[in-house]
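Late entry, evening session. Most of the bench is empty. Finally got around to the prediction I had been postponing all week. Sequence below, unchanged from the version circulated by S.P.
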Amino acid sequence: MSAARKAASLSLDASLLSEAQQLKLDISRAAEDGLARAIEAEKERLWRIENAEAMRAANDYVEKHGLPLARFRQF
């Protein structure tokens, strides 16, 4: 099932638009793909900020105590 689509007005760099048209790229799809990547990157950045303290605490624990269950490792 495809997602609902909505028209949007965009201002794009003229040279990029011209090159995309020459290459017969689907500009709407390319813009959508780029926007999806930008959204994922921003979500990841925000997650890292929100969880920085927990990640620091986990790393500190491993530094002080080693990996949990390390004695059971087979390698």
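Two things to note before I forget:
The first helix runs from residue 14 to 22.
Residues 14-72 form one domain.
Will write this up properly tomorrow.
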